[in-house]
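Bumping with the actual sequence this time:
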Amino acid sequence: MTHYLWPGDPGWPTPVVEADAGIDVYDPDGDIDIDAVCLHAAGDHVFEDLTPLERTVLQGRFGLWGAPVRTMKELHHELGLTRHQVRDQLESALAKVRSHLVA
């Protein structure tokens, strides 16, 4: 079974920062999108159970596989779906991917 590292775990790749550089590598303000980090680090096997629409929404929202990152509003217009439908597809896709990462 593959073990996935999460931000904050020992062995998680963090940038080397000199002590007096004044840069905090942690995220006290919550600016880092953990879903995006995990999706970019995950193997392709976690995306196998997604429907084509879920894959498209996930790819567009998080910029996976070389796609540009798009907002929910942009996806709503591009796909011709309601905002609620786009949000439902994204939530469903993330739930499926999380289930693979936790298992």
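The tokens above came from a reply further down the thread. Residues 33-102 form a domain with the Arc Repressor Mutant, subunit A fold (CATH 1.10.10.10).
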